[in-house]
Amino acid sequence: MIIAQQKPIKDIAAMIEDCKKVLLVGCAGCVTVCLSGGEKETEVLASSLRIMRRLQGNPLETVTITATRQCDPEYIEPLENLVKDVDAIISLACGVGVQYLAERFHDKWVVPAQNTMFVGGSRTHGVWEERCGLCGDCILHRTGGICPIIRCSKSILNGPCGGSQYGKCEISKDVDCAWQLIYDRMKALGKLDKLMEIQPPKDWSKSRDGGPRKAIREDVMIG
Amino acid sequence: MKTESKLQKLLDSGHFAVTAEIGPPKHASAHGIRHHAQMLKDYVDATNITDCQTAIVRLSSIASAVHILDCGLEPIVQMTCRDRNRIAIQSDLLGAYSLGVRNLLCLSGDHQKFGNEPSAKNVYDIDSIQLIYLMRRMRDEKLFFSGEPIKEHEPRFFIGAVANPFADPFEFRVARLEKKVEAGAEFIQTQCIFDMERFERFMEMVRERGIHERVHILAGVTPLKSWRAAKYLQTSVSGMIVPDDIVERLKKADDPKREGIEICIEQIKHIRTIPGVHGVHIMAIAWEEVVPEIVERSGLYPRPKVE
């Protein structure tokens, strides 16, 4: 899922300081699961902003709603009636949701309440970790199911570099060396010889470096 | 002979090589680089020039190399994968060759987190092993990284790489060294050795695989100025092992700097007895002026002349 973390409330408040009435839109997708932008967080943020503004002597009116998903036009279409009489929209979705709202409601000021961080999973309650670098050309079959693109701080394909010690990355004792993990797993699977193959340079054009990407499935297109 | 590198000639003819390291300054004057080059030129066969080591912005490695060449010393240009994509790397290395650089050391590079631009974007378009392979191919098969032919004047570098016997997983370190040799590395400089026992074990594994017959290994040493410097390397630099007895020896010394030089000379004398080691790489970090004494007292002076 996409992991996002709410911006500090003073930063969110600053984005709407000129507004009298705002719509806060939560998302029932990934950000609900990672507890940062679901229905509950949307209500909490709305009341926090109202309290803050009341204390400043500049009351704020809020409207809240949580869309099934903000990354699908059909789920943001029903917001039209709510959008009409607000000065701005605060999206609690990931960056995709913010952009979908801005595209749909092009005459409205749309601001992000979240920092979209990464694609990952939960480790334990309250802890999420990055797992996929969205490189567009998966190599997990060559690295024992551990992604060096995103989990190695240098995205090295022929690791580990000389900064790996006691299983940790040179950047921090809190970061596992991805190549130590890859080595351990390949060893356990009896596939260490695979690590002797020189992995060729990666085709980054399939990643962000090729420009914004699009996926097309003609077989499911309508019309 | 594949290249015009004097270092290669020397190593290939069986001499025990001596290289040093010059760290470029954090300003735009080459005065210090030239001073160090003049001082070192009769005592070492070539000198590395670091490429913004520990990710600190410094005068460029290739520009420094030109000053060093001008002083009559052979440079080894360090090229990290941290700051340049494959377009910039190739362009810079074509330029370096055109300026007379003949030795290249390929590294991943320290993460930018350690430097004075921790919010910079890192590149790592290719990694060090890919860089070795692609530069070897550029020389021997006359191909750009993309596979497009170089019609004429391909750069013909003597290609080096680094190895760190003190990083983990230890048992994979020799295998990774072999991978670098497979990719095309012709000389290897190791991380600073303080744990001689571990280095000996490493070399034993190197000899078991016959790697020492395929590549010239130069053992890295660093003279330490104080016990605090030793402690810092021991506790704060990942991929480094400094045994406690070295820290203690420096702590007890009346003149720690002298003691640091003595330790370094002892290490070099010991390293010369290890089969398969073809040279020594002296990294006197911000202390270049002690290199001549270390070389001389280790019995490595005068340096052999090559045509």
UniProtKB/TrEMBL annotation, chain A:
Segments forming domain Methylene-tetrahydrofolate reductase C-terminal-like: 112-205
Disordered: region residues: 202-223
Superkingdom of origin organism: Bacteria
InterPro entries (UniProt xref): DUF5981 (IPR022026)
Biased composition (Basic and acidic residues): 203-223
Protein name: Methylene-tetrahydrofolate reductase C terminal
Species: Desulfofundulus australicus DSM 11792
From TrEMBL, chain B:
Coiled coil (residue ranges): none
Pfam families the record matches: MTHFR
UniProt pathway annotation: One-carbon metabolism; tetrahydrofolate interconversion
GO biological process: methionine biosynthetic process; tetrahydrofolate interconversion
GO molecular function ontology, one term from the record: FAD binding
Superkingdom per UniProt: Bacteria
Keywords of this entry: FAD, Flavoprotein, Oxidoreductase
Signal peptide: none
Cofactor field: FAD
GO cellular component: cytosol
Catalytic activity: (6S)-5-methyl-5,6,7,8-tetrahydrofolate + NAD(+) = (6R)-5,10-methylene-5,6,7,8-tetrahydrofolate + NADH + H(+)
Gene3D superfamilies hit by this protein: 3.20.20.220
InterPro entries: FAD-linked_oxidoreductase-like, Mehydrof_redctse-like
Family: Belongs to the methylenetetrahydrofolate reductase family.
Record-given protein name: Methylenetetrahydrofolate reductase
Organism, scientific name: Desulfofundulus australicus DSM 11792
